Amino acid sequence: MTTTAALRSSEPRPARPPGAAAPRASPRLWTYTAVVAAASSMIAVTALWVGGQGVPQVLGGGPEAVTAIGRVTGLWAADLLLAQVLLMARVPMVERAFGQDRLARWHRWTGFTSFSLMVTHLVLITIGYAATVRANPFAEAWDMIVSYPGMLLATAGTLLLVLVVVTSVRAARRRLRYESWHLLHLYAYLGVGLALPHQLWNGSEFVGSPAARAYWWTLYAVAVGAVLTCRIGLPLWRSRRHRLTVSHVTTEGPGLTSVYLTGRRLDTLPVRAGQFFNWRFLDGPGWSRAHPYSLSGAPRDDLVRITVKDLGDGSARVASLRPGTRALIEGPYGKLTGETYTGGPLVMLACGIGITPLLAMLWDLPYRPGDATLVYRARGEREVGFRGELDLLAETRGLRVVYVYGPRAGRASWLPRSLAGQSDAGALLRAAPAIAAAQVYVCGPDAWTEAVTAAARSAGVPARNLRTERFSW
C-alpha cells in the first residue's frame, strides 16, 4: 500500500457553487410509509381470501382445500408482481428513501418469490379443479386455458414471465450483454399485464364483490401510473427542461472516458454528488437503450461530468461522442450520497470504476484536512483513474489516498493476492485506522463490495455508518 504524492491538475474541477442549495435529505417518514404500504397490501389481499371462505375450505380438507391454497398463493403472487413493478418504477420518494441498488436486490428477491408462488398457484389450482371433477390434471389444465375467460392471455403472460425469470438467474446474466438482458427484461411489463386480469374474471374473491374488484383495479392503476409518470413522463420533462448537451470528451486512463455536459438551469437539477442517471445519447442507432453512469464530479450550475469504463457496447460508444450531441436523462438515482454527513472522520473505498461517485463526493463534502481517507483498489497503477485530481485533493484538502494494486486474492476477500496472508479487517484498519468512528462509503463490483462490507463490520463500523453501492445488474 502506498500513499499519493502531491501533483497539480490543470483541469478545472466541477463543484457546487457557494450558496447553491443541495437537495434536502430524505425524510425518514418516506421509509416507513413505503414499508407500511407494502405490508398493508399483502394483508389486504389475504383478507380478500379470508372473506372468500378460504380458511373454512382449507380446514375442510379435500380438493377444496387444495384449490383454496392455490387461490391465496395466486393472490400473493399477483400482489408481489405489482410490488416488483413499483420497486423499479423509479418513484422519487422510494428511490431517495432506499437507493436503487437496494431496491434492485428487493426487486430480484420479490421476483423469484412471486414466480415461485405463481407456479405453486398454477399447480394447486389445476390439481384441485381436476380432483373436484375427477379429471386428468393435464386435460383439466388444457380445458382451463381454452375455456376460462382470460386464461389464454394469462398463459401468454406466464410464458413471458418464465423468460424473464430464466434470464435473471445469475448464471444466465453472466452470458448476456447488459443491453440484451435489459431488452428481455422489459417483457416483464407485458407479462404482468397479461397474467393478472384473469383473477378478476375467474377468482371467487372478485366475481361477487365490486369492492374487491375496485381495490384490485386501484392496485393496477397505481402501478401503471407510477411507471408512466416516473419512467416516462418525468424523464421526458426533465430532459426537455435541462437540454443536456455534450461539451467535450476526455480520456482519463485505459478504457476510461469522461464526458462533460452543459445544459440549462442545471442549478435546479435535484442531484447530489455520488448519484447517477440513466443516460441515452442521441448519437444514432441504439440511442433508446439507457445506461447507468454516475456523476464523477460534484454538480454545478453550468456543467456536469460522467465517467465511463469501456465494459460493453453502450459504454464503448461514449468515447466517440461528439460535441453537441443531445442527452436524455432518467434520474437522479442512488443513495450513496453525503446527505447526512456534517463532518468528522470519513473513509471511502473504491474498486475500479467505483471511484466515480466517490470522487464527486470527495470534491463536495465538508471534511477538514486529515479527516478523509480513500482506499482505491485497481489491478495495476496504469488502471488508476483521476490520479491528478486525487493528488490535488491530497494537496489542497488534506485527503489521504491509499492505493491497493493487483488481482484479488479470492471472492471472499477484498485484498489483492500480494496481501492474501493478511486478515481483511486487519488490513482495513491499517489502511484507515479511524474507520470504526468514521462515516464509510463503499463502491465497486458486487463480490468485492460484499467483502469490504464484511471487513468493515469486523473492524467495528456500525451498520448505520456504512453505505454501499454495487456495480452489478
From TrEMBL:
Chain ranges passing through the membrane: 29-49, 69-89, 109-131, 151-172, 184-202, 214-234
Keyword Iron-sulfur appears in the UniProt entry: yes
Lipid bilayer topology: Multi-pass membrane protein
Domain FAD-binding FR-type: 239-339
Residue segments, region Disordered: 1-24
InterPro entries: FAD-bd_FR_type (IPR017927), Fe3_Rdtase_TM_dom (IPR013130), FNR_nucleotide-bd (IPR039261), MRET (IPR050415), OxRdtase_FAD/NAD-bd (IPR001433), Riboflavin_synthase-like_b-brl (IPR017938)
Top-rank lineage group of the source organism: Bacteria
Cofactor requirement: FAD
One Pfam family matching this protein: NAD_binding_1
Main subcellular localisation: membrane
Name of protein: Ferredoxin reductase family protein
Organism taxonomic ancestry: Bacteria, Bacillati, Actinomycetota, Actinomycetes, Streptosporangiales
